[in-house]
Design a protein that fits this description.
single chain, 88 residues, alpha+beta, 2 helices, 22% helix
């Protein structure tokens, strides 16, 4: 991309959730706890021979909006649920 040949690209995604929302257990005041994550972080390791750290940071920041997963999470894309039952 942009004439930069990467020697390494590793992206790690981490999310934090309250497991009670997946069970579904209410909070102490009785309110429902969302099942989804309340925090998501991405950690990018990137390397390219002869390219400065600043240029690599700029590249990652410029490409972040092109991530389909980040875009789906940030925009709250609806999830379609299809259920098919079959004979046992």
């Amino acid at each position: 991309m942009q004439g930069i040949e990467l020697s390494r690209l590793q992206v790690t995604a981490v999310s934090r959730s309250d497991v009670r929302g997946m069970l579904p257990m209410p909070d102490v005041d009785g309110t429902r706890i969302p099942a989804g994550p309340f925090e998501i972080s991405l950690h990018v390791k990137i390397a390219a021979p002869g390219v400065s750290e600043e240029r690599l940071r700029q590249l990652v920041e410029a490409m972040h909006p092109c991530s389909p997963m980040a875009s789906a999470v940030e925009k709250g894309v609806p999830v379609a649920l299809t259920i098919e039952t079959v004979a046992a």
